[in-house]
Amino acid sequence: MPTYSTGIVTNTRDFGTAASNIVVSTRNLNLQSPVTVMIEIYASVDSSVFYTGYLTSYVVAADSFDVREFFIAGNVAFEVQVDLSLSDALLTVTGINEFGNLVEDQIFTIPELNIISGLSPAVI
After folding, report:
1. Is residue 11 part of a domain?
2. Does residue 120 carry a pLDDT above 70?
3. How far, in Å, CA of 42 to CA of 64, rounded?
4. How far apart are CA 38 and CA 85, in angstroms?
5. Is residue 64 a part of any domain in this protein?
6. Quick one: CA torsion of 33, 57, 3, 110, rounded to 10 degrees?
7. Torsion of CA 26, 92, 55, 38, to 10 degrees
8. CB neighbour list of residue 52: distance below 8 Å, 6 or more residues apart
């Protein structure tokens, strides 16, 4: 079904606060079927070479919520790609700093995410 990307996000303290963690929140609005969520997070320590920091999948039961957190401190840029098996799921990707506060420029809901054709190949 739909696959989304944040695009490359600059993650430095030059313009505010850098994220130390990425939080992916999913709500399955379907009352009967579970949704499979696949997440791939690319990160870079120098903005020129990216690596796959996380590649994971999980299931969110019907009419349920799930919140996952991914550590990315030390990376100056990142991209989050998310593939959902159902179209009736809500998704939010946010950056939080080391104190657990939201990073203002790193809040992505479905309208702010880019639609892509599928998850990119992993970079090792």
Report:
1. yes
2. yes
3. 27
4. 9
5. yes
6. 80
7. 40
8. 40, 41, 42, 122, 123, 124
